[in-house]
Every structure is written in structure tokens, then in C-alpha cells.
Amino acid sequence: MERASGRKRDRLSAICRAAAIMIAIAATCYWLSVLTHAYFSFLDGGQDLSVFAYNFWFNLHNAGLTHGLQYISFGNHLSPDALAILLLYSIFPYSITLVYLQTIVICLSSLLVYYIAERMLGDPLVALAISAAFLINPGILGVLTFDFHLEFMIVPTYLLTFYFYMKSDSKLFAISLLLLLGTIEVAPLVALSLGLGLLAYELSVANWKWENIAKEKRIMVAAIILFSIVAGMLYYGAMSYLQSSYSASYQGLPDILKINFGSQYGITTNVVSFLSSPVSFLSKNLSVYANPLGLYILALSVIVTLFGFGFFTLKRPLTTFLLILPWIIPALLWSGNIHYLYTGFQYYACTVGATIAAEIIGAMVVMRRDSKGKPTYNRTFVVASILLIAVMAMLASLFVSGKPITYLSPQTQYAGQLYSMMRLIPQNASVMTQYTIFPHLADRQQIEFTWSEINRYGYFVPQYIILSYSNSSIYSNFQYDALNYTVSNYNYQLYAQDGNARVYILDSQSG
User: Fold this and answer.
1) pTM for the model
2) Distances (CA, A) of 60 to 55, 86, 242
């Protein structure tokens, strides 16, 4: 009987493992198709993708201008890990390479979620449910659809750091922690909250006595906290150094590639303001939620962050609270920038791993087996609750983040117009353009956004300006004003037009 039961569990595990692989591959193919269509149809937004693609291209072709610490500066962020992406970009030097890399890493991370959940909970069906919930989690959908951003690397490195800690694999834990800290300058906050959450967990199972915690766990949790603090200080120092050295050491560097502000600066400023006058600060900062849309976004964000993978996060509330600090801090201290809570924003890459970790730690309290190996919990209820809340959260997020739907819009004529105009611009010419077009021209020495008023932000006067008036982003305040200023004050002439797509040329070039 026991042997038959063991074979049944093995068969279920094999089926769930195969299902997890098939779902991950299907999700990868789906998102690669959708995002390819969005990219070549100029529907992908493009702001961050533009800057990162240009940054990678510039670093490869202008090593003399991007020496020292500037070489790990990408898209107004610092990231030692991005040097590996730079290597990939040197082999496939196209903007869409970045989109494909992010998509593949995030979708295949669902297999990592399955592996970790199955190994730690011992239930392949529940692990499959968590893995499936990961792929439709509104935060993950936001990471996939919000351009390209370095935070995507936090997802797999966080999960690996958590797993190797729980399994007491010190070597692989150390490698994962270093990779996590090297993703982006906000990673030390993410790692620090992980360390504090794991410390609370260890103390809770050790009767709140430090000496009762296993020695290797004490060393590892102390390492997370210590290295996170040190890494945060190093990032802050590097940012300060780069900002102070641009006028002397990096004079030829384009302005859009310089560190002009950093996430840690925002954290520091807001923390100081909060400590000096907490009531005044919070009343002003939280006022953004005092309307129906603000309350809806906040409620959805709470559900996604706390219960995105089930309700077991409530089993160890202190651990969960500390793990999700990377969400709590922006919710309170950066609430003036409510986009940090939008599920269509890339910042959830900083919190999804924490929610999974909190869910698994809580589930370990409940999901036990009797002496015969049978579950003492209601497996059907656990699986159904995980999937139900995941689907409901995903559907609710579409009211405020509809990009997966809009990405499927047909844009054949619109795209054809832009391609016909881009072909008119010589490869060696300097050009100014808008977000959605920029990624397709990012392999140029001199290129900048339409927001760059020449006398204020631009570092050159472009020979050509290409844009499409059918894209509403061009009408957004400073972009449109800056474009008008440039066209009128630098004597540009309409060079060519195809529908709503236009190319302007500097008058001195038209002859």
C-alpha cells in the first residue's frame, strides 16, 4: 500500500512538473509574440527601452567616454549585473534583444517558482498553482509590459537567495545574494527586507532566542543584512561621485546617459522629511489616495502584494510585513508618485519574490502530512484559493492597466508610415525623436528625445526630427512644447510626410 501511494505521488509530481514546463513555454511564446508585435508596431511605449538600448550601444562604441564607474551606469541607474546584458547586446545589438531577454527570464522564472514551492512544501499540485498564479500576477504582467527595466533581474535572484538560504546551501546562497545586490541600486533595500524577514522567521521558530537559531542560519541572515547595508552605501557613494564628476571627467557624455537623480536619493530625502514632521508628511503624501481611483489602486496593490499567491501570508504576519517593506516604503513615502503602485509598472519586480517567500513560509505552518504521508490540509481548497485570487486580481488590474489588450491593436498602416520616414534619414545623421520611435534608431551616435529643448537639455542640434502626430505621447506637455521650441527657434523645414509621420530637417541641411 505504501509503495503504491509513493508511485501515485511520483506520478502526480511528474504530471505537475510537465504541466509547469508546458505553461512556462506557452507563456514565453505568447509574450514574445505579443511584444514583438508591440515593438514593430510602435505600441510599446519605449521610454526606458530607448534609454537602455542607447546606453548599451553607446558603452560598446564609446568606451573612452564611459570609463570607470560610468561603465556600470545604465538608464540613470547603477547595475554591475547589467555588464552581462552588455555582453549579450554586443552579440545581438538590437533594442528588441532587451525585450526578449526580459520576457524569457520572467516567464521561465515560473519554473523556478514551481521548483522552490515543490521542494519546500512537498505538494506538486500546490506548487503548480503558485507557478501558474505567478504568470498571471498583475505585478508580473506589469514587468512584462512596461518597456524594459533592470528590476526584472531581481525576480530570479531574489527567489534563488531565499531558496538557498532556506536550504542552508551557503555557497550558492552567497552567489545568489551578490547577484541580487548587483541588479540595481534599489536592490539593497529589497535584500535588507529579505534579511529582516528571515530573521523574524528564524526567531519565531526558535522561541525568540538568537542562540537557538542554527549557526549557519545566523551567519547567513547576518550576511544578508550586513552586505545589504554596505551595498547601499557603495551605491550611494558611487552616485554621488558620478554626479560630482560629470563636469570634469565625462564632458562628452550625452545628458540622457548621466546619473541626474537616483532612487536612493529619493528614499533619503523622503525619510528625512518623514522623520522631521511625520504627521504633516503623511497627510500630504497619502492625500493621493483620497479619491476613487487612488483608493482602487491602493486596494488592488494591497491584494496583489499581500495575497497574490494565497492567504498563508497571514500565518506569520511579522515576517510578511518585513518581507514586503519594499512595497510599504513607496506606498507611504513615495505615494506622491502613485505609479509605483500601478500594477502596470515595473516596480513589482521588487516585491513579487517577497510575496512568494511570505506565502511559502506561511504555508509551511499549515501544509503538513500525517504519519502515512497524507495531507492534513484541504488541498483542493488551497489550490482553488490560490488560482481564484490570482484570476480576480488579474481581471481587476485591467481596469487600470490595460496594456496586454492594447498591445494587440493592429497598426500596419501607422507602422508603414514611420518606417518609410525612417528610411529617409541617413545612418550617420543626428536625430531627435519621440519615445515610441527611439528604440528603432538607438544605434546612432547622436540621438535624443523630443523633450530636450536644445538650449536647456540637448547636447547637440539634430539634423533631423522624426515623429508621428498620431501618437498621443507627442502632445504631452513638455514634449510638445520642447518640440515646438526646437522647430521654431532652429529653423527646421518639413522634409517629408507620410500620413501622420513627419520628418523635419535643419534648414542648413536642406540645400
Assistant:
1) 0.91
2) 9, 8, 19
